[in-house]
Amino acid sequence: MADHTSSVSQARKTRGRSKQRIAALENRLAALESKLRQHEAGQDVLDKSLDSSNVLSGTDGSGRFPPSLPLTQLFKRFTLWQQETLTKPLDIIRFSPFTLEAPEMRVIELYFCDVCEELPFLKTHWLLNRLERTSRANVAGVSDAWWQGLAHAIIASVMHIKTVNSSFRDVAIYSWTFFRNAYAVLPELIIQGDNLGAAQAVMAMAMFMRLSADSRTTAHLVSMAIRMQLLVGLHIETISESILSTDEEENRARLFWAAYMLDMEMSLNTGHPPVHANQNIAVALPDHSRLGDGNQRDTVFRFRSELARIQQRVSTLLTTPNEPYILDLESELEAWSLRLPLEIRPNWPDDPRSFRTDQAMDVSVAMLHFAYYNSLSTACWESSSQAIESLERRTSRHKSVARAAARATISTLSRFPTHTFAELWKALYYPVSASIVLLAVVCKEPAHSQAPDDLALLSWFVRYLDRLVRDEGCDLRKMRDGISAFEKVAAHAVNTARRNSNEPVDPALWPIGQASGQTGRDVATLLTCTTYHPMHVAQSFMGNLLNRDTCNAKRLAELLGLSWDESGYGPFVPELLMPATYGFAFASNGQA
Q: Are the C-beta atoms of residues 590 and 580 closer than 8 Å to each other?
C-alpha cells in the first residue's frame, strides 16, 4: 500500500514538472511570436516607406529595393533587438575615479587664478562658492555633468602649468587623465545645448587643449564653446531682471568676451573665419570697475576685449586688402594703445638685453602686447608684400612697421614671467612668427641698415631657446634648431651682401650645402610674395591645423632642411605636447 502511495505521489510530481516545462515553452513561443510580429510590422513599414520613395528605384523600376540590399538586412537585425535596448540612454565612459575629493578641490581653490591669468573666463568668487556646495548630490536646476567637465578640465590645466619642466612628462600623464574625464562628458554637454554650465565646461576644455600642440582639437573646442554660448544667448543684451544674480551676470560677460578673444586670436593667427561673423556685437564691453576681482588683470581683460573687436576687422585684410582700410586700422590700433594705462602700455622695445631679470610682466600684460604687435604686423604685411611703384613710400612704411612689431615681439619675450613649458608654449607662436618676419625682410634686403640688428635678435632668440633647453628642462630642441636655421640663412644673406661690398664673410655662418645664396633668395620670394602672413607659417610649424599657408610652411621647411612629422604636426612640435603621447587618441590612427 505504501508503494502504491509513493508511486502516485511521484507521478503527480512528474506531471507538475511537465506542466512547468509546458508553461515555460509557451512563454518562449509567445515571446518569439511577439518578435516575429514586430519584425513583420517593421518590414511592412520599411516596405511601405521604400515603395513610397520616388527618389531611388530598383533595377526593375518599381521603386522597391531588392531584399538583399544592406538597408533591408540592417533593419532585420534591428528588429531582433528589444526596443528598450535600442532606446537605452547614453552613458558616460569613465577613464579614472570620477568623483572629485578634498585634495582635488583644494588644488582648484589654490591655483584657479593661475589658470585664468590670461583669460579670466570665470568669476573666482563664484567658483569657490560652488566648490563649497559640491557635497550636495544635486544642485537645483544644474546638471552634474557640466560641473564634472569644468572641474576636471581646470585640474588638468593646473597640473600642466604648475609642474616643473623636468617632471613634465611624468605629471602630464595624470593631467591628461583628468582631461579625459572632462572630455568624456562632452556628448552629454552637447545634448544639453543651452546650459550655461555646459558652455563654461567646454571653454575650460579649450583652455587646457590650448596648452598642447593639438591646434586642430583646440579649434573644435573653441568653436563648440562659442556655439553653446550663442544657444544660451550670451551674445544678446540681457535684461537685468532676467538674471538670477550678480555673479551670473558677471560670469556671462566673462565667458562671452574670453571666448570672443580666443575666436579672434585664432582667426587672425590661422586665417580661418571667426565663429562670430557679425561685427555688430550687442553685448557691452566688460566694465573693469564692475568686475568682481578689481585687479590689474580685469583692466587688461577690458582692453584685450577692445583689441579683439579691432582684430576682427584686421582679419578681413587677409582676403580683401585695402590700402585706405589699412591706414584706418593702423590709426585705430595706435589710438587704442594710447588709451592704455602707462604701466601696461606697449613701449616698442627693440633690444631684449635692455631689461633686468626682475622686470617680468604679468602674463596677461605680455599676451596683450603680443596680440597688439601681431595685429599691427598683420595689418601691414599684406601691403608691404605688394611692390606697387606708385605706393613705394607707403609700402616702405608698412614694411617698417611690420619689422618694428617683430623686433618688439622678440624683445617682449625676455620679460615673459614664466618658463613653465606648457604655458610658455602658447606664447611662443608670437616670437616664432616675428622670427619669420625678420627672416623675410633680411633675406629680401640683406644690405638694409637694420639687417644686422635683425640678425642680432634672431641670434638672441636662439640663445634664449637654448637656455630653456639646457637650464630649464623645456623640450624645445626642435624649435631651437629651426630658429638656428633661420639665423644661419639670414646671416649668410647679410654676409653675402657684405662680401659684395668687399667685406669679409664668415663661412661658419653658412648652412651646410647652402652657401650659394640661392636659399636666401628663395626664402625671400616665398615669404614676401606668396605667404599670406608669417603667423600662419608659425601656426603650421607649431601645430596640426591646416591653413592657407600650410603648403608655404612645408616649402619653407624643405628649403631649410627641417623635417615634417608624419603625424601631421609641424617641425617644431615636441612629442611631449602631442596628446597621443598620453593616450588621448584612437587606436585606429594614433591621432586625437
A: yes
Say how many CA atoms lie within 13 Å of 266 toward its Cβ.
27
Instruction: Report whether 373 contacts 412 (CB < 8 A).
Output: yes
- C-alpha span between 324 and 391 (Å, rounded): 12
Give the N- to C-terminal CA distance of the chain in Å, as an integer. 82
| Distance in angstroms (rounded) separating the CA atoms of residues 356 and 328 | 36
Cβ proximity of 401 and 330 under 8 Å: yes
The number of residues making up the chain comes to: 592
Q: What is the largest CA-CA distance in the chain?
A: 136
CB of 364 closer than 8 Å to CB of 423: no
CA–CA dist 143, 358 (Å, integer): 46
pTM: 0.82
Exposure pattern of 277-297 as b/e (b: 16+ CB <10 Å)? eeeebebeebebeebbbeeeb
- The domain limits of the chain are 102-280, 321-340+349-582
Q: Where are the beta strands (DSSP E) in 214-273?
A: none
Cα dihedral 79, 84, 85, 86, rounded to 10, equals 60
Q: What is the rounded distance in angstroms from the CA atom of residue 48 to the CA atom of residue 50?
A: 5
376, 401 contact by CB (below 8 A): yes
Can you spell out the DSSP letters for 362-405? PHHHHHHHHHHHHHHHHHHHHHHT---GGGHHHHHHHHHHHHHH
Residues 6+ apart with CB under 8 A from 519: 489, 492, 511, 559, 560
Instruction: Measure the CA–CA gap between 24 and 324, rounded to whole angstroms.
Output: 87
From CA 227, how far away is CA 193, in angstroms rounded?
Answer: 9
Integer Cα distance of 425 and 417 in angstroms = 13
What are the grid coordinates assigned to 93, written together? 565612459
Contact status, residue 379 vs residue 333, Cβ threshold 8 Å = yes
Burial profile 364-388: b = 16 or more Cβ within 10 angstroms, e = fewer? bbbbbbbbbbbbbbbbbbbbbbeee
The x, y and z cell numbers of residue 543, run together, are: 601645430
Over the chain (592 residues), the average pLDDT of each successive run of 10 is: 52 60 74 62 50 45 49 54 59 60 80 90 84 57 74 93 90 91 91 84 96 96 93 72 68 92 95 83 73 72 95 80 80 95 91 71 94 93 51 59 95 89 95 97 91 96 96 95 96 84 48 54 88 94 96 96 91 96 74 45
The answer to whether the beta carbons of residues 434 and 472 sit under 8 Å apart is no
Which CA distances in Å does 294 have to 124, 125, 299, 302, 420? 11, 12, 8, 11, 26
Reading the block at residue 86, the C-alpha cell is 535600442
**What DSSP assignment string belongs to 283-332?**
SPPP-TTTSTT-SHHHHHHHHHHHHHHHHHHHHGGGTS--HHHHHHHHHH
